[in-house]
């Protein structure tokens, strides 16, 4: 069965792009969230195999959402999506329990590589 | 990314970026009403951040860079490093307008935020204007001067990155990049202009020689710069004449060798990134590397007894003056006038490689740049003459001092931090007989073909983005001179191919 992914980003543009990359590689898009709060709520209901998480979002940022999701499920697999120049935030996210990160603008091969790595590990 | 998918992303970009910018402007105006209440800063920051990410994904570089620069400036206020004065907020408002304009331009350039269906709604054939190449050359030369002027502007603007001047410079810079791309695009011409001459040429020559030769040409629609295409015809047709004349055997010879009686030649072009590769394949007799090696040893070009590799074979065949006397060409396949072909290829920045199997045939592969180069280059001088060299090979400049020069294995060397670099004197290379050299001469340390060399010049005059023009090649011109450019003071300069100096 295809592995299920929850995509969290406040921009429809970015969610569409990530969804295109992942569904093109055979993953199932289990749900989408446009804010940190939504991400936590959706995580509870869809129970995805992996979450992609933007850092800068309204109503709870990506890092707080990582902390909340890890508190719910210590085994949650979360991949951070950061822009250039956010190294410090990426480090904080990883310390909070995120497994890996990719940098925008996305290169499909990089995204898929990271998703496979996180799902495999 | 497919066109349809890209059009969808552009539409999404338009529908998200516009409201984000409107929201950011509204938040900014509240902030301007009460500068002590920066509640809107957070919303503006998120908007800029999102726009940056989307624009970068679509390679809308100007919009992405502006959004990034503005986001960075906003961070200084959010961190408390900078106070949001009324003047600062006004400057910020202008920055938001600039981003908005850059986004709209990018959306328009990408064909507008149309759905793919809309794009197919208005079918229209190309509308053509014929333009003299001299006029396009003049345009390119003006562009070169603009690029030189831009460097000065960028240098001055770097002092204060958030000044209106710096932002204007950044915008101008991006427009200039676009202009450069468009001018270079206008100069593109399809390979078919040269390729369509191939089948009749091969047929006529085959008939004249009494050979049955079929030719198959692919890659006609690929485009290269007009100046490159003009220089390509002669060497390409030369290689084909050689293939028909010396490569393809007569029918009886082919039959005896168990081949089809009719010979075949394929000319196939394909895109390889920014380059076009043209392969000319024949199923003729191939080049006899032993015969070539023997001849090379007789002429003193080759010393060891090792079998020639394909590269080694080409290195021998392309030597000016390497003659394959009549008797030799008949058994060796091809190789007449390859020095001329290779020289022409160098002039347009192309390279040549060769694969041959005795009795089976030969493949010549040409790798052409598709667009004329604008090269970041170092300007050096010998007397009043100017020579430019691409910075890709240059490592550093060293002030020459007598105690840094020594001898090693009978060669003059320059000691740079303990490393002994062979010295090449540009005066000697040029056989320069003008004014005496200055007392202290700078050395350009460069690396090519895995070797570091110190090139002695008389003077160094900084860097330029040089628009390189191919040059006519009079007899006797050094092979390491591969192009020419005009400097910002109107002086001509010759481009050196450092790899061929080593």
Would you give an account of this structure?
The complex is a heterodimer of chains A (121) and B (502). Chain A has 121 residues and is of the alpha/beta class. Chain A has one domain (1-85): Response regulator (Rossmann fold). Chain A has helices spanning 12-24, 36-46, 62-72, 87-95, 108-120; strands at residues 4-8, 28-33, 50-54, 78-82, 100-103. The radius of gyration of chain B is 29 Å and the shape is globular. Chain B is built from 17 helices and 18 strands. In chain B, strand 12 (411-416) and strand 13 (419-425) form a beta hairpin. The interface between A and B is medium-sized, with 17 and 20 residues.
Number of helices of chain A: 5
Please give the number of β-strands of chain B: 18
Query: Any idea of the CATH topology of chain A?
Result: Rossmann fold
Name the CATH architecture of chain A: 3-Layer(aba) Sandwich
Write the CATH homologous superfamily of chain A: Response regulator
Radius of gyration of chain A in whole Å, from Cα? Answer: 13 Å
CATH topology of the largest domain in chain B: Heat Shock Protein 90
Tell me the CATH architecture of the largest domain in chain B: 2-Layer Sandwich
Strand line-up of the largest beta sheet of chain B: 10-14-15-13-12-11
Order of the strands making up the biggest sheet of chain A: 2-1-3-4-5
Count of the domains of chain B: 4
């Amino acid at each position: 069965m295809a592995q299920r992914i929850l995509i969290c980003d406040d921009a429809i543009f970015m969610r569409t792009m990530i969804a295109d990359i992942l569904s093109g590689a055979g993953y199932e898009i289990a749900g989408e969230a446009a804010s940190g709060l939504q991400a936590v709520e959706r995580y509870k209901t869809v129970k995805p195999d992996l979450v992609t998480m933007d850092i800068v979002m309204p109503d709870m940022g990506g890092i707080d959402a990582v902390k909340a999701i890890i508190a719910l499920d210590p085994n949650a697999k979360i991949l951070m999506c950061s822009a250039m120049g956010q190294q410090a935030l990426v480090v904080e996210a990883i310390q909070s329990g995120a497994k890996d990160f990719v940098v925008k603008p996305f290169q499909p091969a990089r995204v898929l590589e990271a998703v496979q790595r996180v799902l495999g590990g | 990314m497919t066109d349809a998918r890209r059009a969808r992303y552009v539409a999404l970009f338009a529908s998200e970026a516009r409201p984000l910018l409107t929201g950011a402007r509204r938040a900014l105006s509240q902030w301007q009403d009460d500068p002590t209440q920066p509640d809107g800063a957070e919303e503006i920051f998120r908007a800029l951040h999102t726009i940056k990410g989307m624009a970068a994904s679509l390679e809308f570089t100007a919009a992405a860079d502006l959004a990034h620069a503005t986001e960075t400036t906003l961070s200084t206020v959010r961190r408390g490093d900078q106070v949001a004065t009324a003047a600062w907020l006004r400057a910020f408002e202008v920055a938001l307008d600039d981003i908005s304009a850059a986004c709209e331009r990018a959306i328009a350039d990408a064909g507008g935020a149309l759905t793919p269906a809309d794009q197919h709604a208005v079918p229209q054939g190309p509308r053509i204007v014929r333009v003299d190449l001299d006029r396009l050359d003049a345009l390119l030369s003006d562009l070169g001067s603009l690029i030189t002027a831009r460097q000065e502007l960028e240098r001055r603007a770097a002092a204060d990155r958030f000044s209106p001047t710096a932002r204007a410079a950044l915008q101008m810079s991006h427009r200039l990049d676009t202009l450069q791309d468009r001018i270079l695009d206008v100069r593109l011409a399809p390979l078919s202009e040269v390729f369509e001459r191939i089948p009749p040429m091969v047929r006529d020559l085959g008939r004249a020689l009494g050979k049955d030769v079929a030719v198959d040409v692919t890659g006609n629609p690929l485009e290269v710069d007009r100046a490159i295409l003009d220089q390509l015809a002669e060497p390409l047709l030369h290689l084909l004449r050689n293939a028909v004349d010396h490569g393809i055997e007569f029918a009886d010879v082919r039959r005896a060798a168990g081949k089809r009686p009719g010979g075949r030649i394929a000319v196939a072009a394909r895109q390889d990134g920014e380059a076009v590769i043209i392969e000319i394949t024949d199923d003729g007799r191939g080049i006899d590397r032993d015969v070539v090696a023997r001849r090379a040893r007789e002429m003193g070009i080759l010393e060891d007894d090792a079998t020639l590799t394909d590269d080694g074979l080409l290195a021998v065949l392309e030597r000016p003056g390497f003659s394959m006397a009549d008797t030799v060409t008949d058994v060796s396949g091809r190789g007449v006038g390859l020095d001329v072909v290779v020289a022409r290829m160098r002039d347009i920045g192309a390279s040549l490689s060769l694969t041959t199997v005795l009795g089976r045939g030969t493949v010549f592969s040409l790798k052409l740049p598709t667009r004329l180069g604008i090269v970041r280059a170092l300007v050096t001088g010998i007397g009043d003459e100017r020579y430019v060299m691409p910075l890709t090979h240059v490592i550093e400049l060293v002030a020459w001092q007598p105690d840094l020069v020594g001898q090693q294995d009978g060669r003059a060397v320059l000691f740079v931090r303990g490393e002994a670099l062979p010295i090449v004197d540009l005066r000697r290379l040029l056989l320069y007989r003008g004014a005496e050299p200055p007392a202290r001469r700078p050395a350009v340390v460069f690396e090519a073909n895995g070797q570091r060399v110190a090139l002695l010049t008389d003077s160094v005059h900084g860097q330029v983005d040089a628009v390189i023009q191919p040059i006519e090649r009079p007899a006797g011109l050094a092979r390491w001179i591969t192009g020419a450019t005009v400097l910002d003071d109107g002086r001509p300069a010759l481009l050196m191919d450092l790899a061929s100096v080593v």
